[in-house]
Amino acid sequence: MDKKQPHPLFKLATELGPLLVFFVANAKFHLFVATGAFMVAIVAAMIASYVVTRHVPLMALVTGIIVIVFGTLTLVLHDETFIKVKPTIIYALFAAVLGGGLLFGRSFIAILFDQVFNLTPQGWRLLTLRWALFFAGMAVLNEIIWRTQSTDFWVAFKAFGVIPLTMLFAIAQMPLTKRYHLEPASLEASEASEGDIGRG
Hints:
The chain is mainly alpha-helical and 200 residues long. The protein has ten helices and no strands. Helix 4 packs antiparallel against helix 6 (121-148).
């Protein structure tokens, strides 16, 4: 079944909602209750995404699986280290996938973000490299914050710092995507040309 394009606010709600639940539960109770609530909210967000769009983005799916695994370890072992290191694992994984793809001449950025970009090969390489470095930087930043700051500070950063930083970085990539953008007309002409060759 074809996936539907949701309203941008719906996408933001499914990403920000679980983080807000995590923040509020931690403020009212403690990190272990917040972890359980976060796991439930993540699953609810994925279900809502599938119900509305008949599709769950790859990044959300991978993140959800890691949240469930590390959240379960946190609760079963009663060790908050697992939930705190979880973002580091996710960011490092995304950086490794993007960086590893580049080493083999592949760009997985469109698959990871579940979006279609029309870029030149050079544009793909630069965009992928930048996001790989961003995720690597976020992994390091998460390690620094959870190891040096209080749990409440780390939760607040996770809830209100990560998404703004990611959005600002994405906006900063707009000049690059415009510079290396391929016009749809060019793509259609190319496809038409290939079709003529195939019929020739």
